[in-house]
């Protein structure tokens, strides 16, 4: 009887120590680009209005993931992505010689970002000590559509697109809430995006890397394809005047269609796919290394 008592005490102390050391702090991804080599802007007198970026989410994941800290972290990353893209796109527009205005612009820049998150094969399991958890695989892909529009003739516009996706699925094991069982053996679940349960560092890193890849790809796309203001002083009715950027057949041109090309085999070393990521512009401005 004494033997079982000591076992119970050991499990109790293990559970208590587990709740105090179950979290690790993982900072949010850094969306800041390096400082451009050349920052002089052209005083062209041509104006542009930058509309707030519109975010469209297409999600296909379980209710378990909906209530996970990884979901909370992704939502925060989307906010940071939007905020920093808007800030850096304004900088690029100035570098191209445009004056940013809120009304009566010569041109308008509209942006739509579609994000597709898919969770595959969620399987619920339980542990006597650590509580309930889910094993699954996660895929993420992004599409950005940036429309450069002649405000005086909306038919004269050019679409720039930027697409990024993970090459393979991310293997996940994350805790979930359950009101049943012995409270002291439950794993506490964080609601802070930078405070993750142990074991989620690698998945968080892969998710962060996909966001950064899309962020860099989008800014490089805008910088390398947005025409200089001095080249738009005489607007043309020919939309082919500007360089178009389209380089991913897994998306429809005018609407977001989730790709079914996620690999079935999880890969903890999965890389974010970046298409047409040009590092240096002909004017000598490096957006990203």
Provide structural commentary.
The chain is an alpha/beta fold. Helices cover 26% and strands 27% of the residues. The protein has 4 helices and 10 strands. It has helices at residues 2-20, 63-66, 69-95, 201-225; strands spanning 23-25, 47-50, 54-60, 99-100, 107-127, 131-150, 157-166, 170-175, 195-197, 272-274. Strands 2, 3, 4, 5, 6, 7, 8 and 10 form an 8-stranded mixed β-sheet that branches. Helix 3 (69-95) packs parallel to helix 4. It starts with a helix and ends in a 15-residue tail after the last strand. Residues 4-20, 235-257 and 267-289 have low confidence and may be disordered.
Question: Could you give the distance between the termini?
Answer: 66 Å
Secondary-structure class? alpha/beta
Q: Any idea what the shape is? A: elongated
Radius of gyration: 24 Å
- Into which percentage range does the β-strand content fall? 25-35%
Order of helices and strands: HEEEHHEEEEEEHE
Number of strands: 10
Structure annotation, total helices: 4
């Amino acid at each position: 009887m004494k033997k079982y008592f000591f076992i119970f005490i050991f499990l109790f102390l293990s559970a208590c120590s587990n709740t105090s050391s179950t979290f690790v702090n993982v900072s949010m991804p850094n969306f800041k680009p390096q400082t451009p080599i050349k920052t002089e802007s052209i005083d062209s007198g041509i104006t542009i209005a930058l509309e707030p970026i519109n975010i469209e989410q297409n999600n296909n994941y379980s209710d378990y993931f909906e209530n996970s800290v990884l979901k909370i972290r992704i939502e925060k990353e989307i906010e940071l992505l939007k905020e920093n893209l808007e800030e850096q796109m304004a900088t690029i527009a100035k570098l191209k010689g445009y004056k940013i205005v809120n009304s009566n612009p010569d041109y308008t820049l509209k942006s739509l970002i579609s994000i597709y998150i898919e969770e595959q094969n969620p399987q619920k399991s339980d542990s006597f000590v650590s509580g309930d958890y889910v094993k699954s695989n996660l895929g993420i892909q992004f599409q950005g559509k940036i429309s450069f529009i002649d405000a005086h003739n909306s038919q004269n516009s050019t679409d720039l697109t930027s697409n990024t996706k993970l090459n393979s699925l991310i293997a996940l094991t994350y805790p979930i809430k359950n009101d049943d069982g012995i409270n002291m053996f439950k794993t506490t679940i964080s609601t802070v995006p930078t405070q993750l349960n142990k074991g989620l560092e690698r998945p968080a890193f892969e998710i962060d890397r996909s966001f950064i890849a899309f962020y860099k790809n989008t800014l490089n796309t805008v910088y390398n394809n947005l025409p200089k203001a001095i080249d738009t002083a005489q607007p043309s009715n020919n939309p082919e005047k500007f360089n178009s950027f389209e380089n991913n057949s897994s998306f429809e041109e005018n609407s977001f269609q989730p790709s079914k090309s996620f690999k079935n085999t999880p890969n903890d070393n999965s890389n974010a796919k970046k298409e047409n990521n040009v590092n240096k512009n002909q004017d000598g401005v490096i957006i990203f290394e």
